[in-house]
Every structure is written in C-alpha cells, then in structure tokens.
Design goal:
A hairpin with a 4-residue loop joins strand 7 and strand 8 (about 110-120). The strands form 2 sheets. Strands 3, 4, 5, 7 and 8 form a 5-stranded antiparallel beta sheet that branches. The chain has no helices and 8 strands. The chain has about 130 residues and is mainly beta.
C-alpha cells in the first residue's frame, strides 16, 4: 500500500442557508458551503475532479460530477490549503451532502480525498 501519509488530504466544510435565494413555497432551499482542502500528506497533489452525493429529506438524491472546483484544479503542496465557496439547491429544508475529490499526486498516483457527510439545514426562525 505504500506510505498512507504520502497522499493524504483533509477536508472541512462550513454551511450557511441563503434565505434571499430560497423560496420555501416552491420547495427551493439554497445553501452555500465553504470547503477548506488541506494537503496533509508529504507530496504535492492536484485536485482534478469532484463527485458529490446530495440527499434531501425525502431521500431524493442528486449526484454531481465535474472537473475541478469553481473552475480550478488546484495543486496543493504539502501543508497548503485551498478554500472555495459553492452552493447547492435542494427541495427540503434539511439535507445531507458528502463526496470525494479525485486527486493526482506528483508521482502520478491517483487517490480519492473523502468529503465527510455534512448537514444542510435551514435555521428554524420564528417570524
């Protein structure tokens, strides 16, 4: 298996509900998420693509695959971070997201960086 620390990327996520883009009457709930990707391994690695699984409270699943993130394929040296913000729309006030980033290390090895499951939740606001 080689050195498991060589290719290692940690992913942290913060989410926020976007009320002015959401329309609960139309079952439209918009969330932004800010992701910080840190190369915690010992060699440079490039994020080449992404795969998301987004599930709403009715178990409706959207799968999203694409090249890079926010139009970039960041190359992270050991210890470097890349942060970006993106968004998603679901049909219920609560949902979950998780996924993987497909990475390529400097030595050509392909590996996946896991994005841990996180919750999208509209705050319960009393008007």
């Amino acid at each position: 298996m080689g050195d498991s620390r060589k290719n290692h990327v940690s992913v942290t996520v913060e989410t926020v509900f976007i009320p002015d883009q959401s329309d609960p009457q139309q079952d439209r709930y918009v969330f932004a998420y800010t992701i910080t990707i840190t190369n915690t391994g010992t060699q440079p690695a490039q994020l080449v693509s992404r795969h998301w699984v987004i599930t709403d409270a009715e178990n409706k699943v959207q799968e999203v695959r694409g090249i890079g993130v926010v139009g970039e394929q960041p190359l992270l040296k050991p210890g470097e971070k890349f942060e970006y913000t993106s968004g998603t729309v679901i049909g219920t006030p609560v949902g979950t997201m998780y996924g993987t980033y497909q990475m390529v290390a400097e030595d050509g090895e392909h590996f996946d960086a896991d994005i841990p499951v996180f919750t999208l939740a509209m705050p319960r606001v009393l008007h």
